[in-house]
Amino acid sequence: xxxxxxxxxxxxxxxxxxxxxxxxxxxxxxxxxxxxxxxxxxxxxxxxxxxxxxxxxxxxxxxxxxxxxxxxxxxxxxxxxxxxxxxxxxxxxxxxxxxxxxxxxxx
Length: 107
Description:
This protein is α+β, with helices and mostly antiparallel strands. It has one domain: 2-Layer Sandwich (Alpha-Beta Plaits), CATH 3.30.70.141. It contains five helices and two strands, in the order αβααβαα. The protein has helices at about 5-15, 30-35, 45-55, 70-75, 90-95; strands at about 20-25, 60-65. The mean pLDDT is about 90. Its EC number is 2.7.4.6. Pfam families: NDK (PF00334).
């Protein structure tokens, strides 16, 4: 959120055919962030990820569309922005592996 690109990201979601059915701005607690990223606990980047995700407000959105999870992942690009294809959200907006602009849960 710190980069002021929420509108641009939402526009990209809509241009890709997603319907934004819900959105909310909130501030994650450490407990919430640790729970959301529990699958990564013990990995070298975990503490930095939790720290970043609790450092300020975030925007949580619910997207709807055909094959939405995979299409969302494709639009995001590789988790590491150095490996993200041009035109993906992470290639365009990410600063680092943990500060990569957008996150999607594992289902």
